[in-house]
Amino acid sequence: MKTVQQQISSVFLALVVLLSTVSFTVDSHYCGGILVDASLFGHVETCAMAVQQQPSSSECDISKKDCCSDEQAVVEGQDNLKISFHKMDKDQQLFVAAFIHTYINLFFESQVDLNYYKNYTPPLLVWDIQVLEQTFLI
């Protein structure tokens, strides 16, 4: 159960780091206030209203205002996640080294054998006290 929770939390944290560092752009095309097309990776397609004819004469032309508009939303990701180890001061380096040392030691069991009675021999039994007193555990 604990390993499943650790795997789920590690995948979740990896996704959080990935999504916080990714930057992307959303392009959208509006025609008359209505969203016609939106694109995440490429350019948006324009509607037929966006194609304008060039006037043949340049004198005294009154142009209609274009009803189409393009919007671009840029979402910038974080760029300050790369901290180098040599830019830390002495106390921070000591803390990181101590943390890594103690964290790695959590995964290993101690190999110390605490058998204090290895060389101890019990005394010889002269009389069996339970038989002599006739007291038996039932």
Automatic annotation (TrEMBL):
Pfam families according to UniProt: DUF8199
InterPro entries attached to this UniProt entry: DUF8199 (IPR058512), HYC_CC_PP (IPR058060)
Domain of life: Bacteria
Name of protein: Secreted protein
The organism of origin for this protein: Gelidibacter salicanalis
Lineage per the UniProt record: Bacteria, Pseudomonadati, Bacteroidota, Flavobacteriia, Flavobacteriales
